[in-house]
Amino acid sequence: MLISKLYLLSTLSFLFFIFCLSVAVANNYQEVTFRTEDEGRIGGSFFEGKKVRGVVFAHGAVFNKESWYSLSERLKKEGISSLAIDFRGYGNSVSGKSKELYYDVLGAVDYLEKRGIEHIALVGGSMGGAAILRALAHKVNARIDKVALLAPAGGEAIKSKTIKKLFIVSKGDKFYPRVHALYTASSEPKELKVYSGTSHAQHIFKTEAEVDLTNFIITFLKDQ
């Protein structure tokens, strides 16, 4: 009887611990929704840091906003806010009058601006990188001062001289020639980071280069 009670108590304590842990993770960010210029409704996860720096994370075609959580949590510890979005058609996000993903990026920038974020960086992989480039071609918010692109799958070169640019790609990625051409055509300041292997965009996080890539992006975002 005593053993049964101890077992029950131990089980309940463990379940309570798991519950508290789950609540702590959930409370690490806010689920938010914002409207886009074309009347779309986009969902995102906002990790609140300080108001000096904020980051918009734009995922690739086979990913979602959750794919950026690890990086968002690291940035939050550094005092950097971030908003990881689900593009229209992903999660609970809904298209507006258009299917253009760049509206989602522009809406995310507006959301951070309304929250008082002073400096905004854009980080995107593959499809998300292309959406960022198209957003910048459409309209540049003066608060955007950094852009990090992991093998963007389209878009035009960045001509702004006030935005610091980081292009990331694997040497064996089929998009390497395109990324190198975008890097070459973009204005200074800019940097090209090339990894070995064939992994594409966010898939690089699944390789042995994960730690280096994560630290490299965080350093880029932290540097003035």
Explain this structure.
With 224 residues, the chain is α/β, with parallel strands linked by helices. It has one domain (26-222): Rossmann fold. It is built from six helices and eight strands. An eight-stranded mixed β-sheet has the order 1-2-4-3-5-6-7-8, sandwiched between helices. Helix 3 crosses helix 4 (127-138).
Which descriptors apply to this entry?
alpha/beta; Rossmann fold; 6 helices; 224 residues; eight-stranded mixed sheet
The description of the largest β-sheet is: 8 strands, mixed
Overall outline: globular
Mean pLDDT across all residues, rounded? Answer: 91
Q: What structural class results from the helix and strand content?
A: alpha/beta
Q: CATH superfamily assignment?
A: Alpha/Beta hydrolase fold, catalytic domain
Tell me the span between the first and last alpha carbons: 64 Å
- The unreliable regions are 5-25
Rg for CA atoms:
19 Å
CATH fold topology: Rossmann fold
Order of helices and strands: HEEEHEHEHEEHEH
What is the CATH architecture assignment?
3-Layer(aba) Sandwich
Write the layout of secondary structure elements.
Elements: H1 2-26, E1 30-35, E2 41-47, E3 50-58, H2 69-77, E4 80-85, H3 102-114, E5 119-125, H4 127-138, E6 144-150, E7 164-170, H5 176-185, E8 190-195, H6 210-222
Parallel strand pairs: 3-4, 3-5, 5-6, 6-7, 7-8
Antiparallel strand pairs: 1-2, 2-4
Helix pairs in contact: 3-4
Question: Brief description of this entry?
Answer:
By secondary structure, the protein is α/β, with parallel strands linked by helices. The chain contains 6 helices and 8 strands; from the N terminus they run αβββαβαβαββαβα.
